[in-house]
Amino acid sequence: MSAPAESVRAIRDDVATGRRSAVDVCTAALARIDAANPRLNAFNTVAAEGALSAAAAVDRHRAAGEPPGPLAGVPIAIKDNLCVRGMRTTASSKILDAFVPPYDATVVRHLERAGAVILGKTNCDEFAMGSSNENSAYGPVRNPWAPDRTPGGSSGGSAAAVAARLVPCALGSDTGGSIRQPAAFCGIVGVKPTYGRVSRYGLLAFASSLDQIGPMTRNVADAALVLSVIAGQDVADATSAPEPVPDFSEGLDLGVRGLRIGVPRAFIGSGVDDQVLGAFEAAVDRFREAGATIVDVALPNAAAAIPAYYLVCTAEASSNLARYDGVRYGHRPVLAPDDTLQTLYDRTRDEGFGPEVKRRIMLGTYVLSAGYYDAYYLKAQQVRTLLKREYEQAFERADVIAMPTSPTPPFRLGEKAADPLQMYLTDVFTVSANLAGLPAVSVPCGFTADTLPIGLQLTGRHFDEATLLRAAAAYEAATDWATRAPPLG
Ligand code: GLN
Known about the structure:
This protein is an alpha/beta fold. It is built from 16 helices and eleven strands.
């Protein structure tokens, strides 16, 4: 497959062969960020100096005859809940406003070893809790396709930066859809790998049994390449799996002839926007035309995924966020001499956390408390087990399962911000992949009449990202959605 201009692969090829220097590529990306970021608010931190010196090092190594890495000179942005050594990392929370991690996330180390150049940290919902990027302490991100719309969340800054062509790739994290839904809303590709495929070391934890890190790019082949670089077992993350990592770039052009694409019709039926449904049905037709067999699959308990997800993720968040106490790092309030340690904790958390994070800590503490644990948390875990089984059965009939990524196109900033429940319901199609630990991808599958992007979600079997990406690449090759650029960049 030939690489589109300014793709991850095109830049890597240019830098590796000396057609362009990594410093030139980096300088151009920094200029685009300078011009567009005041409008988009996609970056919390731009690390120009560090990026330029990393790019210069890539050029020096090339000049010295060292083999260029698979991402030589590729500018990459990192969601602001991933630690980069020496680079301010806030999770878009006031509580970590001045936090500068003394270590790199494992994914960041992998990227740098592959020759990538880290440009900065992208805006997101606070601690990745949200679906619109409006829960950021640093203000919302604007959708490059329509400035009055949300880019989705929680990895909204990463999605906007890639869609607006500021960088060819950004990393996101996905606990219940935070890579896939913003990818859908911004018209790009986003991959949530299988739970355990990518090390979570250095990711500021939200819900540890659901969190995964993945690439956001403008095409499937770029996502496959970056996934190959960041995947693999890691001694620093006990949940990372000892599965061999194939070269995900191989086999992308095999097509879908002989593949069975499962469609859970009964689940997709209600509450989906007409234009989204139309684009989805057209995508299913494309698969059929390309030689895939379309089969019906049942996920009878999929509608229970939202309540189960919001019980499990809040329970885990309430535990994970207990560490932000003002003692070790982050925001610390000014105390009077006779204030107690308890006052330090109370004021730190009251001043540092935003309203959605507080809501989730309270909800999570509640569902874990004696007397409610069995009724809520345990029930949610049982639903989770049921869902896993239903997917296993569905994967006996299908190789890949297709759904819309989001039930609606990108909504207006402010439209759902005052109603948390409405916001939670937008995650209806994405959370079950996290509950079941399955890999899933969102690929562009059309536009509304107002030119707002629509995403198609494909879900695969555990550790079968290869088949998943092959199906996504076949769909992409049969359409031209991924080549269109938004007006705002
Ligand atoms: N929107 C979901 C939530 O608010 C998912 C977030 C995520 O994947 N980080 O929890």
